[in-house]
């Protein structure tokens, strides 16, 4: 038996019904009138059923066409065409047309019954014909907004809008498809209302997208180079070598064909690296971090301030020669998607130099909480031992991690915790103090023998796993209690959900022509060159 | 309760109900019996002569013996495992600890709790205890307090909810 926990620990809107109110009802019940209807109900663009349904149409044509082709070459039916005896070509065409029309009608009806509305506080979507669904999500619970243009939609100038809340999985609201202008305007409206920006009461429609300043732009050469030097290449080389050696040793003739699956896999990895990294641009705006990328399908993502739960910087072995890093993040709305798309969404920088990584870090963590951010984060990315105040695995436990013990470590600033690990795949994880969900300290029998403990930090699902491995037990306990206290303190001071509302002055208005101030940037500490960084 | 090297100093741990040990022992007896019966099948078949040549006598005997040894070892550990479960309410967070060989202590801030579950199975209901589980936005948060007396579980749930509300935080 499971019962809910009486009064909710969260504000009533989040826990009483969740950030998304999802109302499924049977046939016949009338949609309710919105109490705070500001905007009228709208439908997505008229041709979106076609764009969404084209795959279904292609599939039908494919199967029919294949049957027909096979019929042509089949010796039994050769010369008689693909049709069974006594069925005219006209009838077959009519049946095909009927199926196509039926599919088109289904998409059209689904389109007709899907309507959306954005009010001051909510975004609502009504959909379904027989089983109606009414969904309502609170705007200030937004975790991320994506505007996606698949290739076909791009041809028609359409875009899909995805509104993510913290349910770690499927999008709360998906509007496919809108005109690109409408989609960007809707995104601006949602973000402005979620941020609590004061709008012109006479022209509430007159919302201008927040200004932005480009921070990082990747050239195609870099993206191609990154793909070539990625782990896929290692797989390719190792795989090719082993296949070749096996072929020579066994004197088998299957060498060439066994390359095919390998080539497909590696080629796919190259392609996804290229298509998701191509034309990558990151920008800062009052609405948060903006990312744009894509070769055929283009995506534009917005992550509002304070929505990054954890950030990971990884360097694969071959990238070390070029000094490149990859930055990925845990954002509550993105969840743990294993697909290429999901990985790309959670990537804040597909490939970047140390300076670019620091620039991205400065956007996520405007206040690094240390006077020597450049030195500290550099030590986290490439350094080892206790440089810049990192606390590593004690020497007595070096056999538990013979390679990595000098890298495994952590450092604490007044705003974030840095966790460093890995020798071949160097990794640095940064967790802002106020984003710690819970943490646990663990010790196995072997750890106890060497007087070390490991810490696990639980964050929302995503590609980044923050943990401290094999720290000295005393230090680990100090961190455990210190971190619990720091997290509580940081939460008390943390920015509100509506990130624009209570700041001292409204930095954003609905007036056009406004410019975005300089992006935050970490500067190296010149005053104390070479001085050791104090652990705070 | 017994202090372990992993324990922080100056912290008062609350223990779970001693009835929980009885529930665990009952479960352990039942589980061990089932495993033992399964492991004895080859032996019985061998002794009755249904399976003649294949399982050598020593193998047929050693299988249930191994199961018995593992079951006894688990039974010996049970009291210590139950004794190792503890929780402590602090001002801002709840600490939960468990484990004998693999020890783990978890801290869950009240403001991070999304909801609290109380689960009671038929055996637990017979003994008047329940299991409390905390959920945060992270599915990896595995904060479970088994074997709470029912009234203590209810009190803790209300307490946690009230404290969570007074320490509002989003994600």
Short précis:
Chain B: Residues 84-160 form the YdbS-like PH domain. The complex is a heterodimer of chains A (536) and B (171). By secondary structure, chain A is α+β, with helices and mostly antiparallel strands.
Describe the 3D structure.
- With 536 residues, chain A is of the alpha+beta class.
- Chain A has helices at residues 12-15, 48-73, 89-112, 151-155, 180-195, 220-228, 231-250, 255-277, 340-345, 354-364, 373-382, 445-449, 473-493; strands at residues 2-3, 20-25, 42-43, 115-118, 122-127, 132-138, 144-149, 158-164, 173-179, 213-217, 281-285, 288-293, 298-303, 308-315, 325-331, 347-352, 391-392, 409-412, 416-421, 426-432, 438-443, 452-458, 467-472.
- Helices cover 34% and strands 24% of the residues of chain A.
- Chain A has a seven-stranded antiparallel sheet, sandwiched between helices.
- Chain B is built from four helices and seven strands, in the order βααββββαββα.
- Chain B has helices at residues 19-47, 57-84, 122-127, 150-166; strands spanning 14-15, 86-89, 93-98, 103-109, 115-119, 129-135, 143-149.
- In chain B, strand 2 (86-89) and strand 3 (93-98) form a beta hairpin.
- The interface between A and B is large, with 50 and 45 residues.
- Strand 1 of chain A pairs antiparallel with strand 5 of chain B.
